[in-house]
Amino acid sequence: MNVDIHPSWKPHLQSQFEKSYFQNLVEFVKSEYTKHTCYPKGGDIFNAFNHSSFDNTKVVIIGQDPYHGPNQANGLCFSVHDGITHPPSLINIFKELMTDINMPYPKSGNLMPWANQGVLLLNATLTVRAHQAGSHQGKGWETFTDAVIKTISAQKENVVFLLWGGFAKKKAKLIDSSKHHILTSGHPSPLSANRGYWFGNKHFSKTNRFLESIKKTPINWTIK
């Protein structure tokens, strides 16, 4: 596994790459990708960082695990490659966008346009074995991504963190709420959304109102 990551992140994360847990993680991932089909493809593992540089990151969305079906995962949480059927959680994200900002339902499920505007779409675990959800959890990825969240919290200010569901909400303890803006809600998965914990959270318009209040460019959430 090559740690192919945007240069802007390296000064902040280099110390993690040198730690023994990360070296062990690299060996584990290399072995998994050699022996099994894993997602996303190797070159996409650090996509979240390569499309949202450290300096440009102003919103963080935290997911849990990459999609584990063929050709779905592209290295950005909740996002799929162009032409791939939208998973249920992504459908509900788009439904909320339709009511929150009047966005037409999009053809593509690729959230790259968000990432390119400074939305870090960070899964807690960056790889997964095909058809085995959670198969790469507890191998070191969470230590790394927790360090990423702590680094953003410590080194930046006025970042909007969108914490959706119980797993993501637990990450709030890593974030200095006195200098960042945290929004929480239920998860967009059907189980949570259909119980009324997701729809109507208006996180997308709330994010933009906050960014505008601190004189930052709002996110164009529209996907086509």
From TrEMBL:
It catalyses: Hydrolyzes single-stranded DNA or mismatched double-stranded DNA and polynucleotides, releasing free uracil. The keyword Phosphoprotein does not apply. The active site is at 65 (proton acceptor). Keywords: Cytoplasm, DNA damage, DNA repair, Glycosidase, Hydrolase. Excises uracil residues from the DNA which can arise as a result of misincorporation of dUMP residues by DNA polymerase or due to deamination of cytosine. NCBIfam families: PRK05254.1-1 (NF003588), PRK05254.1-2 (NF003589), PRK05254.1-4 (NF003591), PRK05254.1-5 (NF003592), ung (TIGR00628). Belongs to the uracil-DNA glycosylase (UDG) superfamily. UNG family. This is Uracil-DNA glycosylase. It comes from Winogradskyella maritima.
